[in-house]
Predict the 3D structure of the following.
Amino acid sequence: MHYPIITPDQLPAMLRSLRQRAGLTQTQLAERLGISQQSYARLEARPAAASVERLSKLLRALDAELVIHTRDDKQTTTSDEAW
């Protein structure tokens, strides 16, 4: 499923939704990431302040990924031919 993020303000709700969809509490996800629940709560509340590396690690733990495409793309491609 695709969830377009237009503004950074949308990220907290998206991350919370992905976490809940995975059936995880903040504490459980924090344990998977090797951080405290408080640190995870701050990350979920303000993900735009996180490094790309930290956000990537979080998305992997949620079995999600970051995909960037131009707005005029009709299809996302991962083919080598796209380069």
Remarks:
- The chain is about 45% helix and 0% strand.
- The two ends are 24 Å apart (CA to CA).
- The CA atoms of residues 17 and 23 lie 10 Å apart.
